[in-house]
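Pair request: fold both.
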Amino acid sequence: MPTFIIFKNNKAVDTVRGADPRKLSEAVKKLAMEADSDGAAVTGGFGEGVGSSSGGGSWLGASLPKGYSDVTDTVDFKGLDLLNSDTAFGNSRTLFEGSKPSALVEGAAKGKGKTKDSEASKKDWVESDTDEQLMMYIPFQSSLKVHTLHITSLPPKESDDDTPMRPKTVHIYSNRAHIVGFDEAENIPPTQAITLSPRDWDEKTGTAKIELRFVKFQNVTSLVLFVVDGEGDGEKTRIDRLRIMGETGEKRELGKLEKIGEGGGE
């Protein structure tokens, strides 16, 4: 049986067994996209597994679904849009950084009796502004089959009136031509509505692994994530990282995103 081993930074990062053109094509696309990034913080490359990151790889807060890969590197960063975010914290691109969230770095440093460093003290997360809602538009460079979303949220354990919450209710819209307004969202049925509970969040990584109704996310060129409310009585929600798992399809021409249907309906 033919076996293809993918190396990055002198380290084996992926293996394709058998003459599978689709898997080989996906591996080549990943390498090509990472090479095109010219050292930018493009995520979704060949990582090393849950809660870890490697040189050039992407940190993951949960395991990959069997048979699928991290396709976060297909996000069209220039087209990202985010509503109701507090400018004192990170922006939409922050959520797709390949590095380990600073909240986890800080926690590890405290456990070893070390002081904060610049990586641990930076505000590399997003918080909502006037209330707990967030609206994010995520276009892609290729059409995708989206299987799973990883949402990482790491609010401080010491709770007070200003402590942000983790997302609780999340509405997902597929193939919208642009971001959805908050008022508009009330009249548009989501492609899928998610309600997260405390047990959905990994205790170590603060990540919720959301498996989507795969049949509804087969030819996706964009996603809109609407955080409707948070887990608690606070006034703000927090997201540290987002990861997208699935399969890549045909690469589209950037700047010419076309709306495919309405992306709604349960």
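--- second member of the pair ---
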Amino acid sequence: MAPNIRLAPATLSDIPTLGRLFASAFAPDNLRHFIFAHGYDHNLSIQYSRARYRSAYDDPSKRFLKAVDDTTGNIVGFIMWSVIEEQGDESEMDTPPPLNSEFNHAVFGRFQKRRVDMMRGKRYIYFNTLAVSPDHQRQGIGEMLMRHFVSVADREQLDTYLQSQMVAHKLYRRFGWVDVEFLDTDLDQWSPEMMLGVHRVVCMLRHPRPIRQSTNYEHVRGR
């Protein structure tokens, strides 16, 4: 496990670090090859992630929680979630240059539409991000963040929806999420020469446990 890890709300000054950490953690994901119009660019990915999280930080419905390595003071992981008061239609995705508008609308637009359709009319938590630095993965940090999060969801007695990459699928199932639907993307349609095959994302839902059954995790108020 991770004995020197401390959880704390992320602050505005943490946003550049969170953007860099997200870009590094998700760089191996095959979808990243197609997000930008001219192929994957790690520096662009960092810039885009920072801008996205900076905008999200100003949204009062969103919460950020960071994991800090107290031996170095470095942020080594974080989660972000939001409370959707009542799911209705959402505005179309904004895909300004240098994003690949066609790919993002076709793939991520479909992901968004499935979430909206599944959760329409409900108040729920949308678990958006779990990211752990590549140098600190498989050390229990993701599990530590998830333990805190499920205590929040149980305390608020809200369903939680997420869309999982296969690499994190088992972790989410361990914390009570169940599979609802598989969203497959044939990446060979976008770049046959790369031979990446089918990319799978799993739509998952978790119902809150009765509070009396919830584990008494340490409570850290997430921003």
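Observation on the second member. The two ends are 25 Å apart (CA to CA).
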